[in-house]
């Protein structure tokens, strides 16, 4: 089992070594149609993982990157949702909990034939599709990649902007912490406190077979996750505040949705379609996101509890990720916040998932302090987008150095660089390949 302090026997001495090692991770985790996040801990296909994997794979094999995304959208529900897990029928049923027998997607008329979960993950897919297309337009055109994925992405975004606009605010809500991508963030503690956990004796966790308990959510929090997922399932995956004990308007997800609409506008132009609806949606989402979730005094975006209408004033990295939105009016303020003591952009690496100055900051526990390569990659992308090439290059170099020393870990202590979670993590490898090749 991988322990929280384990380091690779030999660090990757050169960028060439790092590149070869990243390729090996992606080769090991490839399953002929998609890439699993990690062979042991996450043995199926995960939604936003595949988006980040494709961003790296486009440099090695654009066709394989396209297949990665096509595989995911092949499991799209008829209502437009893209499930957070697509289960591999060749993997033993008890390899991961909650598995297909828990989610029971086969009983839902809108679900695909392949077993999936019923919740979603952050909508990073349109950005990934557009970057993948641009890596090799000729291959993409020959395969009909963009013409097939574009309408699926439109339906995906429509689901989020309609079925998931639970308050009528114009913002989408996540209805489970797993949907946020920042699963165990302290930002969710207050809304989760209203949820009665399922007793630990009523389910069997598989994550603790492959990762240290100190790195993972507690049994109580896991019991709340199970309760929320079970209630959603038992309601037939209907979206309503009456169904969801947890419902949050999340800045990270809404920012990726806005950035995704901008990417869809570019796709529409490429396909000879009208980009104006996507540009309007991107502008509307950007304006509502900023007016609703941004706090000028804090220089930060905060999530909003859909049940109470109150901002959740927790300084998580999700409040910085809106930097990925083109034309974000408060980009300079977000960068100043990232440079401050809470996130220490110039020396903490990866960006901490949670406020370094908070008394409950935990540098080793899942999303309660450690840094992840994907959220740092998103912020790096935003720095380049908003005219900060020096800060972007500094972050890029330090991310490469961190992973060269620690290996392809799931997450890392942002101050010491110690690796945590599982090893051989696909999006770490994929995004490192992208950072190596950044112009």
From TrEMBL:
What's the protein called, per UniProt?
Mannosylglycerate hydrolase MGH1-like glycoside hydrolase domain-containing protein
Keyword annotations of the record: Glycosidase, Hydrolase
- Similarity comment: Belongs to the glycosyl hydrolase 63 family.
* GO molecular function, a single term: Glc3Man9GlcNAc2 oligosaccharide glucosidase activity
Tell me the Pfam families matching this sequence. Answer: MGH1-like_GH (PF22422)
| Residue span, Mannosylglycerate hydrolase MGH1-like glycoside hydrolase domain | 42-428
Task: Please report the organism this UniProt entry assigns to the protein.
Answer: Actinoplanes aureus
Q: Name one GO biological process term.
A: oligosaccharide metabolic process
The superkingdom listed in its UniProt entry is Bacteria
UniProt cross-references to InterPro entries, sorted A to Z: 6-hairpin_glycosidase_sf, 6hp_glycosidase-like_sf, Glycoside_hydrolase_63, MGH1-like_GH
